[in-house]
TrEMBL record:
PANTHER family found in the cross-reference section: CELL DIVISION PROTEIN KINASE, CYCLIN-DEPENDENT KINASE 9
Keyword Glycoprotein: no
Protein name: Protein kinase domain-containing protein
GO cellular component terms attached to this protein's record: nucleus
Pfam families in the cross-refs: Pkinase (PF00069)
Length: 401
């Protein structure tokens, strides 16, 4: 990652057996190498001390996130520390993927990765240096904002937020990148109302040639936002999995909490069929090819998306777009480009930046610092909330937002 440094121009020649700093007979070659790398001045990977860490704002599956300021320029940044504690095989592949993908992407609605920094190993960090991803700082995340009752987005601002989300997804998909972890806490919003899609820890580039079916892992996406094809074992999935997540998030803009809070995969499927209707070959002809379809038994249900969401959402275009996103058959689910053409965005009131609402907020609403909302930390094994708004005793299938 930061190996493009040239040792000849920046460091003394490395020779453990000759160097005075490696003189101890009992030193293993490993510790000699460790000392060498610790003292190495990586020209493209600066010391994290150039930033002043001020507050922990996020604790995710793959690392801690801090608010910090550059000591020289005073620019605000978010530092995501790569979690290495449990890594036996070197630098985590998830972080490598996240860095690689973010380095290739550049869009106003995708969080910008400025650089990678490192901390030296010291006694304080148990002699293990860390790697940090340095991101542009966004004052809020959507999960934090929706959990704050003071924040009330009018329809025109919701339109602008959702339109920016579709623009981000459309950009990713046109570059053959799947996000694979759509959820409100991965959507960052600046004080000026600019949306930045973040957390590319599960993202991957996908093959576009249909010559051979792909075999991606289906243990992706936080359970509550996981598309039915993933839950049924699909490994040849594609862009529609992200659009299912957008459908859940869009509904959440009005419901204010995740709409399908399953506890385990089968429960999640039950909730999905309660809202979106029975999963069968009539509505989804290819479903019988999915590994788990024949293994699960779901009750017959009628589709109730419009009926259930209309009283909460109000706007018929919004309900229609959610209805087109929460389509069971991925091949019939609306694409991001088609969604951007939807009347929801061209009907009155027209989209307006959420800056007006966000400007007046006293505090930042991070997932970490915001009260009340359940944290959805684990991407493939969510911690469901202990009590639901509808009551924890509600039977399987009863708990729809
Ligand atoms: N650029 C940023 N600006 C402001 N806050 C951020 C930024 N990046 C991350 N955060 C905060 O840190 C939290 C965790 O970050 P992120 O989602 O990237 O990490 P993660 O380890 O993959 O988390 P998770 O597994 O919970 O999704 C975010 O939900 C957000 O609150
Ligand atoms: Mg996250």
């Amino acid at each position: 990652m930061c190996a493009n440094a040239n040792p000849d121009t920046h460091n003394q020649d490395y020779n453990p057996s000759h160097s005075s700093s490696f003189h101890s007979q009992k030193d293993s070659p490993y510790s000699a190498l460790q000392q060498y790398t610790d003292n190495y001045e990586y020209p493209y990977c600066q010391d994290i001390n150039k930033y002043d860490k001020q507050l922990k704002i996020g604790q995710g599956t793959f690392g801690e996130v801090f608010y910090a300021k550059c000591r020289r320029t005073h620019r605000a940044v978010a530092l995501k520390k790569v979690k290495m504690e449990y890594e036996k095989e070197g630098f985590p592949i998830t972080a490598l993927r996240e860095i690689r993908i973010l380095q290739l992407l550049r869009h106003e609605n995708v969080v910008r990765l400025y650089e990678i920094c490192r901390s030296k190993s010291t006694l304080y960090n148990r002699e293990r240096g860390s790697i940090y991803m340095v991101f542009e700082f966004c004052e809020h995340d959507l999960a934090g904002l929706l959990s704050n009752p003071e924040v009330k987005f009018p329809l025109e601002e919701i339109k602008d937020i959702i339109r920016q989300l579709f623009r981000a997804i459309s950009y990713l998909h046109s570059n053959n990148v799947l996000h694979r972890d759509m959820k409100a806490s991965n959507i960052f919003i600046t004080r000026e109302g600019k949306l930045k899609l973040g957390d590319f820890g599960l993202a991957r580039a996908i093959a576009t040639s249909k010559m051979q079916p792909a075999k991606y892992t289906n243990r992706v996406v936080t359970l509550w936002y996981r598309a039915p094809e993933l839950l049924l074992g699909d490994r040849n999935y594609s862009f529609p999995i992200d659009l299912w997540g957008v459908g859940c998030i869009m509904a959440e803009m009005w419901i204010r909490s995740p709409i399908l809070q399953g506890t385990i995969e089968t429960h999640q499927l039950t909730l999905i069929s309660c809202l979106c209707g029975s999963i069968n070959t009539r509505v989804w002809p290819d479903v019988e090819k999915l590994e788990l379809f024949s293994k699960i038994v779901l009750k017959d249900e009628t589709r109730k998306v419009v009926e259930r969401l209309t009283p909460k959402v109000g706007n018929r275009y919004a309900v229609d777009l959610i209805d087109k996103l929460l389509v069971l058959d991925p091949s019939k689910r609306i694409t991001s480009n088609a969604a951007l053409e939807h009347e929801f965005f061209t009907s009155e009131p027209l989209p307006i930046s959420a800056e007006r609402t966000l400007r007046h907020l006293p505090d930042n609403c991070f997932e970490m610092t915001a009260p009340q909302r359940p944290r959805l930390g684990v991407s493939h094994a969510p911690k469901p909330r202990e009590t639901s708004q509808m009551g924890v005793s509600a039977g399987m299938g009863d708990r729809l937002y």
